[in-house]
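Collaborator request, handled under Task 6.
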Amino acid sequence: MPKDNTPGKPTTRRYSPEEKQAAVRMVRSLQAETGMTHGAVRRVAGQLGYGVESVRSWVKQTEVDDGVRPGMTTSQAQRLKEPEQENRELRR
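Structure tokens returned to the collaborator:
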């Protein structure tokens, strides 16, 4: 993917759901194989060339969705977002 090297403009990359799932699977398998809880995310992110915090957030959200970690699941967040979007559209 070509990068725009304009000063002051942050570059963003959109990852597909398949890429995200693959990264989470890699982190989980590395944690299961080595028993390593610290550093697994950084290692996988480095191997794939992804941002560490991006991969970390995907792993956390997957844990929330699976019920391992407390928090708002993806489906709950979507249900809250729908009425807000509808209200914005009605105001326009």
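The cover message to the collaborator said: "The two ends are 36 Å apart (CA to CA). Helices lie at 17-34, 40-48, 52-65, 74-91. Please let us know whether this matches your experimental observations."
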